[in-house]
Amino acid sequence: MPHRSFLFFILPSAIAMILFIALPIGSVLVQSLFVEHGQILHEVETCSPFGGCTTETRVDAEATNALRAAQPLGRFNGLGTYLNRNHLATGEIAAFWSASGSWGQFWSRVSQLPFYRALGFTIAYTLVVTPCGIALGFWIALAVNRIPKVLKGPVIFVSLLPMIITPLIGSLVLYWMLNSRGILGRALQWIADDPTLSIGSSGPLTWAVLFLYGIWIAAPFSFVVFYAGLQTVPQDTLESAMIDGASRWERVRFVVIPHLVPLATFVALVQLMDNFRVLEPIVGFNAQARATSLSFIIFNDLKAENGQLFGSAAATSMMTILFVVILLMPVLIRTWRDFSRKPA
Amino acid sequence: MTAHRPSRLLSVFATLFVLVWMVTAGFPFLWTAWGSFKVEPDFFSRVDWTNALTGVNTVRQTGGAFTGDGYYGAWVLNDFWAAALSTAIVTVATVTLSLILGTLGGYALARSGYRYAFWILIVALIFRAMPHITLVSGYLVPFFELNIWGTLTTSIIVLVAINQPFTLWMLHSFFLSVPRDLDEAAMVDGCTRFQAFRTVILPVMWPGIITTGLFSFLLAYNDFAVTAMLLRQDNQTMIPKIASFLGSIQNEGNVMFAVSSVVSATVPLFLLVMFFQRQIVGGLTAGAVKG
Fold first, then answer.
1. Which GO terms describe its biological process (chain A) (predicted)?
2. Over the stretch B168-224, which tens digit does the pLDDT of each residue have?
3. How far apart are CA B205 and CA B177, in angstroms?
């Protein structure tokens, strides 16, 4: 296709992506260097005939609003927002480092800081949910492959539900069952023999439930992809493995799994990207007291009732984007290698 | 040799495992749909979980074993119909625009043999990985300044743009499966490139376009980050509306509004899987095999 007609065809899509994906990233970068104006204060001296004079500090609402309207970005703050307590907290970490006696003490104090707390949960969620979801999907695919044909349609139908469900709705549906007055929450209390047990009051339990939710919505996707992959496993290879005396598990291990590896890398890539942006379950499970994610703290800054914290949200966003690029780095490097090896 | 005949034990085990998975995947929806016709003290029972089945309090409060009070409260008293209307407008417009931009772009990417087409796909992959909320934090200040915040049009355009990377990838791989000879034959017969695209390629692409449309629909319908931040209270779509029910949860009965609106919002998705199961499965595997 000549360059001219390529440009003609790609232009609408390219403009949309440049305007609403590339430019906003630039806008985030600029915003992260600014911070909201404080209120303008001025001193008023009031004198009464008897009491003498007192000076009072008042908020000059008019001047504050005028300044905010004139400079909507706020004032320039450089890297200040990145380094403050709510983000990288360099000052606090230095203080912890000198004050803490042991590594354990140091880490437990660092993990209390908002940014590191969110980062820790986001990474844990991504690293737990991605492999577990893929593994569960793989086992479901193997099992569904063995059951009678008439059952397969309904099984696939039901399996698709957690995947296509709106994440907020999915997490609410599970949350209502799991909270202390829901059916599963009651069952948990009965099993643990502890009537006061509730998911929300325990940190590890909240994390576990969020992970389970993640696996619940992630597994169907891997299941469907692997199930389709299983239909194309070369039968000859399977049969010759059987003749050579390979056991059932050996056939899965040495024939089926190698056949599915390219699919697994694709699934892993998509799921890593999706799990890293985890936001809705924390809203749905009302879990922010026990677990926050990078997306959630950005959301929280933007939702703030008394004044949205654009600078703070932008700084977290920039660092999140940086992590996404790091996450994609292996893929990008591999593509780059494949590409430069190929003769142009 | 035992390996030759299928082991019965293994089949039984597989069937059991599938059954457990089906219950895990399906029961939560069934339970919530059932519970949405009960009153709060039954569905969230402090006393006895079987109340949700028998509906003791529902009978006492409303006279029947099932009640539509939750639905009445959400749809009529709390204007959930308006949110449903907003959702309908946003999803239909987003899907249509996504497909128009996506087919043009995907076709170009599939037919161009140059290096830059490859790089555009890689950049699209990076864009696909951006968490939506990070982009939203970039929109707000400029949108306030341009005075375009809070309208459905803005949200639609943003959703179309956010969907583009995914749409491009998917349609690109569908277009690759249409042989190049087809457009070349049309162009030899005197079609321009665009005529060949519109009259020859698009008609054979319908299955791919429908599948991609389904996924664009899901992206737009399921979105929370964009619509929650970019729409006003009065033109909110369903998902942010449900989230705002949760905010005012103190009042007795409000939880049931949320439950019934959650069930209402699940119905279109349920129908979607019922009618388009084949296309959804096909789309997932097409992306996996070719992407």
1. transmembrane transport
2. 999 998 898 888 888 889 999 888 889 999 988 999 999 899 999 999 999 999 999
3. 9
| Residue of chain B nearest A297, judged by CA positions | B133
* Domain span at B193: 74-290
Same domain, B120 and B262: yes
Which residue from A10, A158, A248 is facing B105, i.e. has the nearest CB? A10
Instruction: Tell me the fold of A118-289.
Output: MetI-like fold (1.10.3720)
Q: Based on the domain organization, do B65 and B107 belong to the same domain?
A: no
Under-70 pLDDT residues of chain A: 51, 342-344
Please check whether residue B268 touches A, CB under 8 A: no
Contacts of A187 in chain B (CB under 8 A): 49
E strand or H helix at A47: strand A41-48
| Type of residue found at B281 | V
CB-based contact, B225 to chain A, within 8 Å: yes
Residue B4's pLDDT is: 47
CATH number at residue B96: 1.10.3720.10
Residues B265 and B171 occupy one common structural domain: yes
CB atoms within 10 A of CB B199: 11
Closest-approach residue (CA) in chain A for B127: A21
| Residue B137 near residue A28, CB atoms below 8 Å | yes
A42 beta partners: A58
Domain count, chain B: 2
Q: Please, what is the Cα angle at A245 between A240 and A251, to 5 degrees?
A: 65
Average per-residue pLDDT for chain A: 88
CB pairs under 8 A between A and B: 292
pLDDT at B1: 39
**Rounded to whole angstroms, how far apart are CA atoms B188 and B178?**
17
CB contact under 8 A, B35 and A16: no
Nearest to B246 by CA among B46, B33, B74, B81: B74
Is the CB of residue B66 less than 8 Å from the CB of residue B55?
Answer: yes
The reply to whether residue A263 touches residue B289, judged by beta carbons under 8 angstroms, is yes
Give residue-wise pLDDT tens across range B42-63. Answer: 888 877 778 888 888 888 888 8
Residue-level pLDDT at B290 = 45
At residue B159 the predicted structure's pLDDT band, cuts being 50, 70 and 90, is very high
B266 touches chain A (CB under 8 A): yes
Contact check, Cβ <8 Å, B131/A339: no
Given CB atoms, is B137 within the 8 Å cutoff of chain A? yes
**Per residue in A201-230, pLDDT tens?**
888 999 999 999 999 999 999 999 999 888
- One domain for residues B253 and B268: yes
- Residues of A with CB below 8 A from B43's CB? 176
Chain A contact for B165, CB < 8 A?
A: yes
Helix axes A203-230, A257-276, angle to 10 degrees: 140
Domain ranges of chain A: 63-112, 118-289
Chain A contact present for B259, CB below 8 A? yes
pLDDT band at residue B29 under the 50/70/90 scheme: very high
Chain A contacts in chain B segment 38-57 (CB below 8 A): 43-46, 49, 52
Question: What ipTM does the predicted assembly reach?
Answer: 0.91
User: Cα angle at B240 between B235 and B244, to 5 degrees?
Assistant: 100
Alpha-carbon distance A97 to A318, whole Å? 26
**pLDDT tens digits, residue range A156-167?**
999 999 999 999
Q: Check if B29 contacts A (Cβ < 8 Å).
A: yes
* Inter-chain residue contact A266 with B108, CB threshold 8 Å: no
